Amino acid sequence: MNDVFPVHGMDAVVFAVGNAKQAAHYYSTAFGMRLVAYRGPETGSRDEVAYVLVSGSARFELRGAVRAGTPLARHVAEHGDGVIDLALDVPDVETAYRHALEQGARGLEEPHVVEDDHGKVVVAAIAAYGDTRHTLIDRSNYTGLYLPGYVAAEPIVAPPAVKNGRLFQAVDHCVGNVERMEEWVEFYEKVMGFTKMAEFIGDDIATEYSALMSKVVADGTRKVKFPLNEPAEGKKKSQIEEFLEFYGGPGVQHIALATNDIVTTVDAMREAGIEFLHTPDSYYDDPELRSRIGEVRVPVEELKRRRILVDRDEDGYLLQIFTKPVVDRPTVFFELIERHGSLGFGKGNFKALFEAIEREQERRGTL
Ligand SMILES: [Fe+2]
């Protein structure tokens, strides 16, 4: 089939943060990521610093403003720390960009070439939900570490003492919280030729208080998966509404990181001070859950000890766990996911997950 908007995968998740230097330290020490590249005033970047960290194929760029009044400084002032760009690796930037604009996307950066001694990169950008953007990037003719203008940087700390020296190997999916889900599902269908995956969460799956609706769009190869959430009417304030209020509009809610050994990863991250959502004993002791999930790689007792969730569908199963928000505002968080055949997102865990989030909302006084 002719893919109108082929993508190779995620290129980078770009964060705007209030203090990139400290954030780089946090993602190094607590997420086991390796600093590889940097730009800042010393390298000719007058207004910003940027730290590029990797873990397997996952790449984060952390950008911070060094002076007031720049677009980045304003973004952080308005939204707090958060994701500004879900950059996509595409084979043909020009064609992708033109197609996107023809289909109604708003262009932010015309396709252009940036180059240095390591070769050429083609870059363009389109607007997504809220103040989030998608940079479209082709680095196939580039051998440098990241982009022209960046210099090599040494890792901040030694790699984690685990197999492969990393805690996760890829970005699994990136979730957006929006006001109107259907509008953005249609955007990704039209603009990027993405298609809906089977998982659909209606407000029927809500807890007593908090409701949301969710659909997932993905590219043809299923390498890029974007679930989209919309708040639904509940008795109290939905966690999506809370996000929209505190972030100041639509934005990226969570990034799921793929690991082959969620037990080791969770243990290492907890040891480093990362806080995960609590799941009550009742979740694990429920005979219905035990019969539904059947045989999984890790004994249920081990999952229970770490509060790791498990879900099974017709294709297989997955293990997952969610951090608490990792920024000051109750906005951005992470998920760890270990897949065994399942292509889902843990639909069977939504209720348990929402209830855990509601307990946190209650503590914040925002339920
Ligand atoms: Fe997720």
UniProtKB/TrEMBL annotation:
<dbReference type="InterPro" id="IPR037523">
    <property type="entry name" value="VOC_core"/>
</dbReference>
<dbReference type="Pfam" id="PF00903">
    <property type="entry name" value="Glyoxalase"/>
</dbReference>
<dbReference type="InterPro" id="IPR041736">
    <property type="entry name" value="4OHPhenylPyrv_dOase_N"/>
</dbReference>
<dbReference type="InterPro" id="IPR029068">
    <property type="entry name" value="Glyas_Bleomycin-R_OHBP_Dase"/>
</dbReference>
<feature type="binding site">
    <location>
        <position position="254"/>
    </location>
    <ligand>
        <name>Fe cation</name>
    </ligand>
</feature>
<keyword id="KW-0677">Repeat</keyword>
<dbReference type="InterPro" id="IPR005956">
    <property type="entry name" value="4OHPhenylPyrv_dOase"/>
</dbReference>
<keyword id="KW-0560">Oxidoreductase</keyword>
<keyword id="KW-0223">Dioxygenase</keyword>
<comment type="similarity">
    <text>Belongs to the 4HPPD family.</text>
</comment>
<keyword id="KW-0670">Pyruvate</keyword>
<dbReference type="GO" id="GO:0046872">
    <property type="term" value="F:metal ion binding"/>
</dbReference>
<protein>
    <submittedName>
        <fullName>4-hydroxyphenylpyruvate dioxygenase</fullName>
    </submittedName>
</protein>
<feature type="binding site">
    <location>
        <position position="173"/>
    </location>
    <ligand>
        <name>Fe cation</name>
    </ligand>
</feature>
<feature type="binding site">
    <location>
        <position position="335"/>
    </location>
    <ligand>
        <name>Fe cation</name>
    </ligand>
</feature>
<keyword id="KW-0408">Iron</keyword>
<dbReference type="InterPro" id="IPR004360">
    <property type="entry name" value="Glyas_Fos-R_dOase_dom"/>
</dbReference>
<dbReference type="InterPro" id="IPR041735">
    <property type="entry name" value="4OHPhenylPyrv_dOase_C"/>
</dbReference>
<feature type="domain" description="VOC">
    <location>
        <begin position="9"/>
        <end position="139"/>
    </location>
</feature>
<keyword id="KW-0479">Metal-binding</keyword>
<feature type="domain" description="VOC">
    <location>
        <begin position="170"/>
        <end position="324"/>
    </location>
</feature>
<dbReference type="GO" id="GO:0003868">
    <property type="term" value="F:4-hydroxyphenylpyruvate dioxygenase activity"/>
</dbReference>
<dbReference type="GO" id="GO:0006572">
    <property type="term" value="P:L-tyrosine catabolic process"/>
</dbReference>
